[in-house]
Amino acid sequence: MEKPDFIQQQSTIGDAIAQADALAQKANEQVQAFELDEAMANYSDALSLYRANKSKLGEANTLKSIGDVQQFRKDLDAALASYYQALLLFCETGSKLGEANTLKSIGDVQQFRKDLDAALASYYQALLLFRETGSKLGEANTLKSIGDVQQFRKDLDAALASYYQALLLFCETGSKLGEANTLKSIGDVQQFRKDLDAALASYYQALLLFRETGSKLGEANTLKSIGDVQQFRKDLDAALASYYQALLLFRKTGEKLGEANVLQAIGDVQQFRDERDAALASYYQALLLFRETGAKLGEANVLQAIGDIQQFRDERDAALASYYQALQLYRAVGDRLGEANVQKAIGDIQQFRDEHDAALTSYYQALPLYRAMGDRLGEANVLRAIGDVQQFRYEHDAALASYQQALALSRAIGDRLGEANTLKSIGDVELFRANYEAALANYHQALALYRAIGAKLGEANILQRVGEVHSRLDEYSAAIESYQQALAIFRAIGARLGETYTLRNMGTAYAAIGETAKAMELYEQALSLARAIGDRYGESSILISLGNMRSEGKSAKEAIAYFQKALVILDEIGSPYAETVRSQLATLETQ
Questions:
Q1: Residues 6+ apart with CB under 8 A from 443
Q2: Domain of 545?
């Protein structure tokens, strides 16, 4: 490459130091233009000249610049080697400001590598030197970095203290970009603490400053964070508006990782709204970008989200394939919480498929991971799932032990929905054991919790269970009252499966008190709903109820017709209950 005129002129007059300075300056300009190979070549030439002419300060500055390029390229061992050489030279020449800047850069590499104790040690040394030299901007940047480490460690009070010190200094020095970045970080802490009004206030201040300074990437990241708060608050239209603004900016700046994260967030909103085709489209776009950028954690998170949609759609083979890919990635990056969540999801599919040994294996793999991470909510959820498998296997003592552990955890962390769900499960075990008083006690505790948190589906399910207990006790008026309350809620929220079974149970209660016409009406409504939603097992159970009612009413021919229809369905779906119905049918046919 032909040397520029100025550099050639300096070489000609023999001013080697000036030539080195010019090379370093040219390299700095090339770094700004992201011409990194050319910059490194010029830095190397400058370094040789500084060394040949014993300019230790020039050598130190150039080594620091080389380290910055190496850090940007994620060549971290090389970056540290360059920084440590620069540090020795700055110390030797007495350049405390150079020493401080280099220590800050060393801390940045250590923070990236999660070597957080070392990073803090480097930052605190740099902080002292910046204060000693009166460099308020350097002091502010270092305080911001210290706050970042403290935030990562969940030492949030300390992080906020560091951020607010940095904010004052950025304001004092007129660094609007530093001020914006710090406000964004303060908002992140506030969001984590669910102090959402304060978080939004911080984000909107940051947004104005990013726009004022022309930092499109900062603007995009802040819009993404605003969208996250709006999504958490279920203000979904506003969240999507924020995300789509961020998406345009990430694409404009060529920031593919940011683009991927926003597409995933958009998919999360779409999935919550049951717009699952749109959600999958967003997730698959994000997946390609995460793979392109080598972001394995992002890839794992999206694969898990894709698996969740596939599981919801009963595409369980596809869901398992997605989950197993995610599982490998979580293990590769050492994300134990992600690993635990996927193991739990895999177990849920196995439980649904009645693969109970496999489900328990998955759950028991997830359990120690949740405990190791201190995630008591995850631990409680997996214990409840283990209890569900044990209950299905009629291992009721073991199920109750699992449920009681889950219940204690849910109460300890204030998870009222988890507490209600677990009380319902305990009630189900007591109902099976005919411990009706205990069942009702647990159901009524759960009912109060569901009502307190506005969980209508949980409330309706409990009312249906309460009705079943009253039916078992031959308290049919109380049973019908509970069923009617449940039915009204199921209809209000559009839960047609719950509506189907409640109609069937009400029909059984009316049949028990001799109101056969009302029972028939309810059974027919239930049968129509079961067929409409494709619940074949439910359809068969209602046909059996109709058959039982007709056989008790001495209408054997009609009863046989109902049992025959039920048996066809049970055989088609491979239900073991088919043999019981076959036996009933044979008895009826021989009468």
A1: 423, 424, 427, 462, 465, 466, 469
A2: 538-591
